[in-house]
Amino acid sequence: MSERFxxxxxxxxxxxxxxxxxxxxxxxxxxxxxxxxxxxxLNAEAQAWCEAEGVEWLLRANQGRDFGAFQAxxxxxxxxxxWQDCDGLILLNDSxxxxxxxxxxxWPLFLKGVEDVVLGFTDSFQNGYxxxxxxxxxxxxxxxSSAWSEFWAGLDTSRGTASIIxxxxxxxxxxxxxxxxxxxxxxxxxxxRRLSASGHFSDxxxxxxxxxxxxxxxxxxxxxxxxxACLLNPSHQLLFPLLCDGVPLIKRDxxxxxxxxVPDPFLLAGGEQWxxxxxxxxxxxxxxxxxKGSSFLQKSLRVLYNxxxxxxx
Length: 313
Hints:
By secondary structure, this protein is of the alpha/beta class. The protein has 2 domains: about 5-185, Spore Coat Polysaccharide Biosynthesis Protein SpsA, Chain A, CATH 3.90.550; about 190-285, no CATH class. About 50% of the residues lie in helices and about 15% in strands. The strands form 3 sheets. Strands 3-2-1-4-9-6-10 form a 7-stranded mixed sheet, sandwiched between helices. Helix 8 (about 190-195) packs across helix 12 (about 240-245). The longest helix has 18 residues, at about 160-180.
């Protein structure tokens, strides 16, 4: 009997499974997907919840990030012979927040998939063309190919993050393209670039922001025009066009640290329908900015002191 499987890469030092992760897993289960959570730790309460909801789990050493997790899961499937019954596979990690209004987004299209196409939400030209790997839908024709099995057999997950991105995320797309398979993003970068310059997007954004924040949005749009496609990370810098286009997933680090300096998504009027305030308490892990007596704060004060001395001179 053929089945569709979803691998969910999860990390929590405490072994907890937070509310928004459970909502993603339930959404998959309710649409007919068999789910395997791959984690370094799941506490007793999380395991009990998984068992009650028919969610399997696999515990592994914390190595290789998401691609280490996916490799461990696929190799287990190979040993058990379960890959032969796999009629579709979703690779998903816990770095994303699923909008509460997911039925009005491209989430149903992603779950449905395309028979002979590897599907993602976004693509990128950074360091080589690839589908961004936080969410991929892989059809059966790919899963039964030598290119797929050889990729996981040859992937070295013992090295650092840069190697995992190069050999994992970018390497997978490259190997599948070379094997003749099609890759498709539901919200492709080139479409998002055109959308960000359109009147439709400008009107949508104006309707989302109050007058006090529209100048910020205008500056954001102008900055996008100065960044070449090869330097853009769509899931970060193009988040606002993505939200306008109906993407269901928001990267957690944009909400936490926002290294790309996009306008805060919480300022959008639609956020009231997208986010659950109770879920965010356990989900967000903001960076530590320094407490009294910390080395970070001491260094910051030292820099400010030196600047003030120079200004007096």
